[in-house]
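REVIEWER CHECKLIST
Item 1: Sequence provided? yes
Item 2: Single chain? yes
Item 3: Sequence as submitted:
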Amino acid sequence: MNIMKNIKIEKITLNIGAGKDQSRLDRGIALLHSIANSTPIKTVTSKRIQEWGLRPGLPIGCKLTLRKFKAISLLPMLLEAVDNKLAQSQFDDNGNIAFGIHEYIEIPGVKYDPKIGIMGLQVCVTLERAGFRIKRRKVMPRKIPARHRISKKEAIDFMSKNFKVSVGEQA
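Item 4: Structure as written out by the authors:
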């Protein structure tokens, strides 16, 4: 097998949307810090949506990106929170996986904190192969050729083989 075709985890992004509620945002930041032991950043709006009371620059959520060893060590715990079951609809055509965790206390090793309350979070896993840097580099960026992209089937096979995830029609 060609070693350039080996799939690896590029990053895991944990996301909590809080809307305009600043106390929920502060609790979300504390939750992400307790799960991953890293400092999350606030996400801000770029558009004005008057019906929702949003204006540019208003913080509405928080996110945390984990790479390399931290991502690989946290992923089995996050998958265990959803019983190692994912739906096919949670995989996209570019090698990304997204799933939600309804309550953070479902994650093994995370205890209930009365200051945080009950909250859920969104988990996005990005898979890539060697050579994917060409789409992000500053000088002469290029598109990834179709034969080198990660298909939905390859992403499902990778998760099934490496993390013992069962993939069905509905999770």
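Item 5: Key structural point noted by reviewer: The chain has one domain: 3-168.
Item 6: Recommendation: ____
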